[in-house]
Design goal:
One of its GO terms (molecular function) is transaminase activity. This protein is of the alpha/beta class. It has twelve helices and twelve strands.
Length: 384
């Protein structure tokens, strides 16, 4: 695929830079400006009536698209928030934090979880166990054994780990072996919109978190969560008035919650991200683009990158420095991760050549997106 025409504004803004950080910030397609502007026009035209007359239809459209992508039967199993941290903490607040709380996770979760988890662990009654994802060859076995041998109140794990690109592909086995009372949360932020995801057989047993900043190309402030259909048993302490919006006219001195995913909503938010996300989905539909095609496109780009890397190193880095090669796995997300003590120095050298990547600690990441072509990969190595 050559989809550069959908990204003319972003690519013009990049100038002669090569943006290989799509996993960190996927460049925006031109259509998001139309979405953003439409929100402003609706606000001008409708004022406070915009919520029901304009925003609600946009929200319903986005819910329907997300449910379709995830193979979830009911779009009302989806709710929105400005970021996944808000959604995660709302789930934490479903528990009585005066009582013991046991959480199982990994050492490779994004900071929206890991920082908050570290703070929570300062309380004597909250224990958080983080299993190392490396070595990855036996990670699945170690994680399942931990679930079998111990009971946890919550399991939080990424679908694609942000610091390696390695893929967790055993959701069904987590569900099989976890206690029926365990809350299971999948952080899909580095996977959704990139790797085809089918929750049709597991959606009633887990919470799935993701958002628009990366592969959904919609920018900040628009994240979502899918919830099990029996989630009416949860009463989040961290709540907002939107979680009871339809009952406000009959408000009583009791904290009620909506019967669907809306029970996890907060308070007044900026809905412009929903407009941007809808604009992206509309363009995908118009151009017959789906996530499976996107994934195939990126895999082809990655394979070409790896073939070039066989004969030409990147400031001394070779295929042997790639984490998926070191761990002996073939399944990874839409970014390739090198492990090197000089990751930040190499990132700076690449930047001087107009090649934009990013690094986290000792990991240097190259991300691929819809706006890339084989020629972009060739140009990267030509500059080197």
């Amino acid at each position: 695929m050559n989809l550069k025409h959908l990204y003319s504004h972003s690519l013009k803004g990049m100038g002669d830079k090569l943006h290989f950080a799509a996993h960190s910030h996927h460049l925006w397609p031109d259509c998001v400006a139309d979405g953003q502007n439409q929100y402003v026009q609706d606000a001008y035209r409708l004022a406070d009536q915009k919520w029901e007359a304009a925003i609600k239809p946009v929200e319903n459209s986005v819910k329907a698209s997300l449910a379709d992508f995830l193979c979830i039967p009911n779009p009302n199993q989806i709710c929105f928030a400005s970021n996944v941290h808000t959604l995660f903490f709302r789930l934490v607040s479903c528990f009585d934090l005066r009582k013991p709380l046991k959480i199982l996770s990994t050492d490779s979760e994004f900071y929206s979880f890991s920082r908050q988890a570290l703070r929570l662990s300062e309380y004597d009654n909250i224990s958080i166990k983080e299993l190392n994802t490396i070595p990855f060859v036996d990670f699945k076995d170690r994680f399942i054994v931990e679930i079998k041998e111990n009971t946890y109140d919550m399991i939080y794990i990424s679908q694609v780990f942000f610091n390696s690109g390695l893929v967790m592909d055993f959701i069904d086995e987590i569900i099989l072996h976890a206690s029926p009372d365990t809350m299971i949360i999948i952080d899909g932020y580095h996977a959704f919109g990139a790797i085809p995801t089918d929750l049709s057989k597991v959606h009633d047993r887990l919470f799935y978190l993701a958002g628009g900043y990366k592969y959904l190309q919609s920018g900040e402030g628009v994240c979502f969560m899918s919830v099990p259909t029996d989630s009416d048993k949860y009463r989040p302490l961290y709540t907002g008035w939107f979680a009871e919006f339809n009952e406000l006219d009959d408000h009583k001195r009791i904290v009620n919650y909506a019967p669907d995913a809306s029970r996890f909503l907060g308070a007044t938010t900026d809905p412009s991200g929903l407009y941007r996300m809808k604009s992206v989905f509309d363009v995908w539909e118009k151009n017959n683009i789906n996530i499976r095609q996107i994934h195939s496109h990126v895999v082809a780009l990655q394979n070409h990158f790896l073939s070039k890397l066989e004969s030409q190193s990147i400031f001394g880095l070779t295929t042997s420095d790639l984490i998926h090669e070191q761990e002996g796995v073939k399944s990874f997300g839409h970014f390739l991760t090198f492990r090197t003590a000089i990751a930040q120095q190499i990132q700076q050298k690449l930047s001087l050549l107009g090649i934009l990547t990013d690094s986290r600690e000792d990991r240097l990441r190259f991300g691929f997106g819809m706006y890339h072509t084989i020629e972009d990969v060739d140009q990267l190595f030509d500059r080197l």
